[in-house]
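## Example pair
The file below holds two records. Each record gives the amino-acid sequence first, followed by its C-alpha cell line.
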Amino acid sequence: MTRFLSIRSLIPVLALQLGAVASAQNLMAHFRLDEATGPLCNDSSSGGNTGQYIGGVQLAQAGARPGTLNSVLFNGADAGAELPGAPGIAALSSNFTVAAWAKLDDPTGYRVLLGNVNGWAVGSFYSNLRFTTRGIQDYIVPGAPVSTWFHYAVTFDASFLATFYVNGVQVGAVQGAAPPFNPATSWYIGTINGVTEWWNGSVDDVQVYDVALSPGDITALYNTPGSPLGGGLGAPYCGPAAANSTGMGSPLTASGSTSVAANDVTLTASSLPPNQFGFFLTSRTQGFVTNPGGSQGNLCLSGVIGRYVGPGLIQNAGPGGAFSMALDLTRTPSGAVFVSVLQGETRSFQAWYRDLGPGGAPASNFTEGRVLVFQ
C-alpha cells in the first residue's frame, strides 16, 4: 500500500524544527541503542564515544516510541555499556544536558542511567530523579515514574543549577555550588562503574549536549523521539529506516538553508555499514515500497525519481559509516534530465546504499526519508 505524508501535517513539525529551538548547541553523544547484536554500543554523533555492552543486556527490545526503533533492557545486576574515554562527554563539567527515554522497573536504591564514578551521573534514587557530582553533591527531586516509559532530561548550567524535566515539563531544580571532580577513564550507561548502581529497566535514545538546553529545546526533544536537536532542515518521514548490517537504521539529515537563492543544502546519511557505497535520491512525490528489487529496506519515494549518480556523485561511507553531499539546486536530477528547484517546491530525499545480507551476501538498503519545503 502506498502511503503519503501531507504537507499540512508537516507544518507544525517544520515550525518546531525551524523556529522553536532557541539554544545554540552541539550534540556531543547520541546512543540510539538500536543495535540488534553486540558487542558495540554505537555513538552516532561525532563525539567518538562508542563503547561495548557488558553483562546480560537484552538488545533489540521495543523502542520507547515509534521514532526510536529499538531499546536496551538492563537487568539491574550486571548489564550495562562501558564507554572508554568518551571524549565527547568527559570534557563536560558544567553547562550541559543529558536526555534519554527511560523505564525504571525497580527503583530500589541508587540507579545510574549515564555516569562516571569520579565525575557526574544521571539516574534515580528510589522513586526520585537524581543528578550527582560524585563526592560533592546529590541533586534530587521527586517524581521518577516507575514501570512506564518517560522522557528524562537534566540540564546543569554554568551556575551549577540542575534542572529536571519529565516528558518535556520541568519538575524541579536544585542549586549547587561546585563542578564535579575530574572523571575516571570510563563512562557507563546502566551503571556507575561496572560494579554497582545498576539500572533496572530499559533505556533508549541517550543524547548529550554541550549546553544547558532551554525549556523549548527539551520539549522539542520530547516531541521528536529519536531525533536530535539540530537534526537540520525539513522533517524526517518514512522512519525509522530498516535496520542494516550494523543493527541500526540509517537516518538522513539536511543542513544549510531552504532558500533557493542561497543554493546551500547538504544531505548526510549516517549509521551506515562502513566502507559501503551509495547515492542520494529525490522526488516531488512520496511513496512507500517494501523491499524493492530485493532490498533489505524501503523506498520512500514515487513518481519521477532522480538519482545522484553522475561523475563524482557516488558516495562511500568510509570507516565512519556516513557520507554527505552538497546539492546543486540548479541541477536536480528528475528522471533522465536535470531541473532547478523552485521557490515553494516541496521535495523529498532518501539515500540508497550497499549493505550486507545474511552470511555476508551483497545486499542493499535505504535510509529514512527527509522532506524539504523550499523558499
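Second record, same layout:
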Amino acid sequence: MQVCRSIGTAVLFAVLAALNCAAIFAQDSAIDNARIIHMVKMGLDDEIIIAKIKTGHTKFALGDEDLVQLKNSGVSGKVIAAMLESSVLTSPRVKVDGKPVELHTLGQAKVGGRLGHEVSLGFKSVKWKAYLQGRHAPLVASSKPKIEIELPPSDTIDNYIVVRMDGKSDRREVEVSSGGGTVGAKSGIRAEDVMKTSYEPLGGRSFKVTVHKDLKGGEYILYVVGSAHYEAGVFGKGYNFTVE
C-alpha cells in the first residue's frame, strides 16, 4: 500500500510539473489573437496588454473578419490599434527558393590597381571594390532562383537589383566605383554585373523577383540600391546567395 501511495505521489508531482512547464511555455510563446482575447477576459488593463504586445513576439491575424471577431470578443480599439502597429513591417523579409536570407553589409572598399595608377602617372584606372567575407554565401540557390520579398511601407521594389559578384578564395567582391585612366571617374555598380529581372506583385507589399536568364554558377547578391554610406565604412547592403 505504501509503495502504491509513493508511486501515486510521484505521478502527481510529474503531472503538476508538466502543467507548470506548459504554462511557462505558453507565456513565452508568440502572442496571437487568442491570447489577446484570453488576457481581456482575465480582466487585464489595456495598458498591460499593449505593453505585452510591444515587448513580446507577436503573430496576429488582422484581416477584416479577424478585427470584427476581436471587437466582438471585447478587445478595445486601443489594443486593436496596438496590434495593427506591431504588425507593420520595419525591414524587408527576403526568401530565395523558399529559404530566409539575412541582410549583410558590404565591408570597407578594397582599392585595386593603385601601384599601376602611380607608376603610370594617373593614366591607369583605380577600381574600388566592396566585399563580403567568405568564399561562398550560406545559402545555395538554383540557377533560376525564386526570389520573394516583403517590403515595409517606406520601401519600393525598384530599390532591389540582382548583382553578380566576383568570387575570390576568401571573399566575394563587387566593383562600386573606378577613377583615373582615360575615361575619368565612374561610380556605381557595373552594368554588366546587373542581372536583368522583372517583378510580380503577390499582394500587399510582397513581390516575386524573376531573373530573365538562368544564372551561371557563382556568387550573387540582391543589392539594396542607395544602401551605401561611405563615411561610415558601409559600401552597400544586400542578401547574398550562391549558385552552384
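Notes on the second record: Residues 15-26, 114-123 have pLDDT under 50 and may be disordered. The chain is about 30% helix and 30% strand.
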